[in-house]
Amino acid sequence: EPLSEPGGRCRLRPFCCEQGLLSRPDGSAAFLQGDTSVLAGLYGPAEAKLSKELPDRAALEVLLRPKVGLPGVLERSREQQLRQTCEAVVLGVLHPRTAITLVLQVLSDAGSLLSCCLNAACMGLLDAGLPLSSLFCGVTCALGPDGTITLDPTARQEQVSLGTGVL
């Protein structure tokens, strides 16, 4: 079903978020976007291993766990994008020589996974009470074969698209 409506308006699949689901992490959040869902667990700031310690700020590590199997090249690429986004807003200078670990577990992927991960990450950072310079969110866009742009595409819409990007 197309997500574009007459008159050029667009709509997103229904989404929701719940924070504080997990007791072990310092912060946690589940973000659901249509049938795509991601669980985020945030640990830290905590003592950093000497090899990862940064003298002027917190070291941020992002781990993306697929629903099944081991992380591959795609997960590593997405981890880097997620880490760069989080590093841009986390005020790590307030916690030098510490480590912050963000673990994102994919529960289901029905499209727009990276934006769902971004949204879960932001909610997890908030739940942990980390100092942030701003908030962020993500929305995936897909360019269809006919030149139309679809917001929040499903997995099927992503497969037939000429390309996707996250805003």
Automatic annotation (TrEMBL):
One of the record's GO cellular component terms: nuclear exosome (RNase complex)
Tree of life domain: Eukaryota
One GO term (biological process): nuclear mRNA surveillance
UniProtKB keywords: Exosome, Nucleus, rRNA processing
Broad class of the protein's primary localization: nucleus
UniProt keyword annotation of Cell division present: no
Exoribonuclease phosphorolytic domain boundaries: 12-131
Annotated compartments: Nucleus
A Gene Ontology molecular function term of the record: RNA binding
Name of the featured protein: EXOS5 protein
